[in-house]
Design a protein that fits this description.
With 221 residues, this protein is α+β, with helices and mostly antiparallel strands. The protein is built from nine helices and eleven strands. The strands form three sheets. Strands 1-8-3-6 form a four-stranded antiparallel sheet. A four-stranded antiparallel sheet has the order 2-7-4-5. A hairpin with a 2-residue loop joins β10 and β11. α4 packs across α5 and α6 crosses α8. The protein starts with 5 loop residues before the first helix and ends in a 6-residue tail after the last helix. The model has no long low-confidence stretch (mean pLDDT 92).
């Protein structure tokens, strides 16, 4: 599983052995809480297969989703570096195989592996850009554009290199990421299909033109 990760393949053999000896993989079903908000950040987390969301919820159950993380994505390096409490819930949107690198292993790599340090710097930079875009989109864009931008983020090759042009995701799952109803997601996807930027199938979205998808709604900003 780790052999599919570009950062792992860049490691020296002794560092690869360290990761394999101390890390683990788990299978989680849709709806499982994988990591709790305000719990210690004990692991750097990756998605081997599936889809997770990073979100917060208040006492009444109202939630706010920061990001979706598809196959190939890694997240949480900021909190792991600072050894701080996690700032969000990590929830499986669909059945997922999740990878866990312990915090001490992460720091050992950060201290001794230049390729890993370089990867983490790029990861932090790209993640910051994604979060800024997410806040901007949620405040300034209409629902159709928010759906387009949420999809475009899932295909960001810098953060999610394993995402293929066709993504296995239901309208309900996409609604969980965007924060709107399945019915409204359906309307937005139909509109985006008319624009020619994607094609729809059962529980499947194929992006036809990623650049055009990422431009949807930009004129509203």
């Amino acid at each position: 599983m780790f052999g599919q990760c570009a950062w792992f393949r860049a490691l020296a053999p002794e560092h690869q052995a360290l990761v394999l000896a101390q890390s683990r993989a788990e299978t989680h079903e849709a709806g499982d809480v994988i990591a709790r908000r305000l719990a210690p950040s004990e692991y750097w987390i990756g998605v081997h297969r599936g889809l997770l969301k990073l979100a917060i919820f208040n006492a009444s159950g109202r939630g706010c989703t920061f990001s979706g993380v598809p196959s190939g994505g890694w997240f949480g390096e900021g909190s792991v570096i600072k050894r701080e409490l996690r700032k969000y819930e990590v929830v499986a949107v669909q059945r997922s195989i999740v990878l866990f690198v312990p915090v001490d292993t992460f720091h050992a790599l950060l201290d001794t592996s230049l390729p890993f340090t370089r990867f983490v710097i790029h990861q932090l930079n790209n993640r910051m850009g994604e979060f800024i875009a997410s806040i901007q989109n949620s405040r300034l864009l209409d629902v159709d554009a928010r759906v387009a931008q949420a999809l475009a983020q899932l295909f960001n090759p810098a953060l999610y290199p394993d995402t293929c042009p066709s993504l296995a995701i239901s309208q309900e799952e996409l609604g969980m990421l965007v924060g709107v109803s399945r019915q409204r997601i359906n309307q937005a996807l139909q509109q985006l299909e008319k624009l020619g930027v994607l094609r729809l199938a059962y529980n499947q979205i194929e992006v036809v033109d990623l650049a055009a998808l990422a431009r949807v709604g930009i004129e509203q900003i």
